[in-house]
Sequence to fold (477 residues):
Amino acid sequence: MSDNDEFSELLGAYALDAVEPEEREAIERHLVDCPRCRAEVAEHREVAAYLSHTGAPAPEGVWDRIAAELAPPAPPMRMTILPTGEAATADVPVDPADDADESVTPIDRTPGAGRRPSRPMLAVLAVAACLIIVLGAVAVAQSRRVTGNQTIEEMASDAAANSKLKVDLAGDAGSARAVVGADGKGYLIMDDVSAPAEGDVYQLWGKVDETVLSLGTFGDASVVPFSVDPARIGDIELFAVTQEQAPGVVASQQDPVLAGTV
Amino acid sequence: MTHPEDPRASSSGRDEGSVEPDVNGDIREVSDAALVMAVSRYHQDALAEAYRRHAGAVFGLARRLLNDATLAEEVVQEVFVRLWNDPEKFDPARGSLRAYLLAQCHGRSVDLLRSESSRRRREEKDHRRTAEAGYDLEREVWDLALADHVREALESLPEAERAAIELAYLGGHTYREVAVMLDEPEGTVKSRIRSGLKRLRVELVGAGLGLGEWS
Fold:
């Protein structure tokens, strides 16, 4: 029996939390690399959700306790350094680039621990983070936002006029400016940047204390919003843009197509 | 590093001119996936709406598993606080929010059931849970049309598959424990759980239920 068959037989019990802890760990290691089994688990859980459907009202009083427990915010820029120094990129940002327009794929949160297996391997971490990137893309697509009174260009223009940090970027793709306001809201304003190749995206990176953070991906945009921790604006050393295959990467292997140091 | 501003305190605390997720018009019309996106942007009202939609089911499952309303409320609290803290763990491409929350609830509930501190109490209740598991479904007050479909689907299962699934999922037992209870080989039970779930899926889809589409 192949590994896959062995795990397959357990997927139903696993989806119902009816396996032993060591089996759970083995299955979860397998699931990282097996989209077919992940899909099957998701299907089983969807079915199980019907079995437990009670139609009961939400319990009284519990919401108040939840609301009281909602934590103060996570830092707008979370930096999780990967274990290997060489690929010391973060598993990424950050505040979800609050003012992102539809062309931007902010990467909302760093993956956490929870009941999932630990992720000692860089490759595993990269896969996990790529999933987050995909999720970010999906979520943005599903959360189309209403633009307020100001256009993104106007907000960028305001930010440029009052910027705390301004960096010129140049490279093969053309030239652009990154401006960051005191509130940590930043905009990459394209002066003359060609669109990425089909199937590719541009990915914006910021470097802070030897840590390279992805600040989001974008396509053919004139202005790209991003966010950084206001307390760390002074620590930003450079901005760079790479061209990557969609939906983006955790650690870029590409030379920047735009770069500018502070 | 300090963060004096709490953007999660309320959505009204944001800067003027910022772009809001489209959840403020009529939040009850927003999809679950968009709600979670809004949660990831610190909208407490979006979490409140997710709670309104799904907390009853989460509570129902926890209470059934734990047989203890106070503990079940704690699980509900934990599940929704976790959604607030780690919204990215919900992947709308991989299933519904309801199924995700229930899976979180189930995992946490069985962890509690299996913890050392509750083992003794569990043993006392085992007999009763074993006896009741097959009948609980009929006793619940369900959305009637949905309940009929689910009941029919369950009744269409071979009895051995139905018993294995109910003891595992609603009884919180491992497949090995179920094997002992039903006096069947472990391998048989694990296969029956899987085949039964697949059969249930076919039945539910055949009955016109869009799996994962919770109103």
